[in-house]
Amino acid sequence: MPRFKFQTVDVFTDRRFGGNQLAVVTGAEGIGDATMQSLAAEFNFSETTFVLPPVDGANSARVRIFNRTAEMAFAGHPMVGTAFILALERPDLARLSFEVPAGLVRVEVVRDDRGAPVGAKVAAPQRLSTGEEVSVETVADCLGLALADIVIATHRPIVASVGNPYVIVEVTDAALARCLPDIRAFRAALAERPHFGKRFSLHVYARDGQRLRARMFAPLSGTWEDPATGSANAPLACLLLQRAGGERADFEIHQGVEMGRPSLLIVSVQKRADGVHATLFGKCVPVTRGEIILD
Predict the structure, then answer these.
(1) Are 81 and 157 in a shared domain?
(2) How many domains does the chain have?
(3) Of 57, 81, 157, 223, which sits 20 to 30 A from 261 (CA to CA)?
(4) Are 121 and 133 contained in the same domain?
(5) What is the pLDDT of residues 173-227, one digit of tens each?
């Protein structure tokens, strides 16, 4: 009877039961695509990762990332959490390179003075890319907001990505807590944009200088709200640097507060010759470990 080891970890937090939950299945050779998707739905976290041998032996691993309904090209907290779990088993592990559909993800393990892993820094696999704007009316309908709640001074709602696309939206500080996703409006927004495929995810934020508060809603992917979204906060920070015309910046981003799972993401962004790039840092706390039994 096949058995596969897994561990769960809370990511982008330094306290258990905060941050974003992640299940990591190591030694996942022999698990088929459909079973991976079923296991991700069974865990019922925002994402579950499956660690496989790399295609290129120069890299550390191939990592497949599944949310509740589909495989993902890239996601931030799965990269941080997977590196942390692997580092728990290997005291010498300092740097990793993960093969994901969006490209190569380079990771640096962060350890405390005793050498124990506390988290990881992740370089997003792609530079910032931006797509079409989305009307404020559509965003307001999806989140139950008034048009005046949406801030357009820096940018209008716009698709942005460093490996996984989100509609990035600035809102007023008061409006952030009032966001309430309307699944029918999300479905209608996606139906009007068939070129978006199966994804229509809104990442909203309120800004106070370099400190941001954010919320991410992806109900069409099974995630009503996400407590910490590295692959959305990275393009958000890149977008802000691009619009400001600067060379580099650091952002402290708080998410998950309204869900009772407070998270902290530190995002560093830098302008290079080929565009704007992001690095994410987050701490982790291990929670459970066990075995998956498959007939």
Answers:
(1) no
(2) 2
(3) 157
(4) no
(5) 999 999 999 999 999 999 999 999 999 999 999 999 999 999 999 999 999 999 9
Angle in degrees, CA 192, 147, 229, rounded to 5: 70
Around Cβ 153, how many Cβ atoms within 10 Å? 7
My answer on whether 42 and 61 are in the same domain is yes
Spatial neighbors of 97 by CB under 8 A, at least 6 apart, are: 54, 58, 59, 60, 104, 105, 106, 107
Query: Range of 26's domain?
Result: 3-125+282-293
My answer on whether 139 and 253 are in the same domain is yes
Say how far apart CA 47 and CA 72 lie, in whole Å. 9
CATH code of the domain in which 239 resides = 3.10.310.10
Q: Quick one: pLDDT at residue 57?
A: 97
Residues with active-site annotation: 47
Q: Over the stretch 147-182, which tens digit does the pLDDT of each residue have?
A: 999 999 999 999 999 999 999 999 999 999 999 999
Residues 193, 66 share a domain: no
Q: In this predicted structure, what is the pLDDT of residue 1? A: 60
Cα distances from 124 to residues 86, 147, 278, in angstroms, run 19, 32, 6
By the 8 A CB rule, do 203 and 218 touch?
A: no
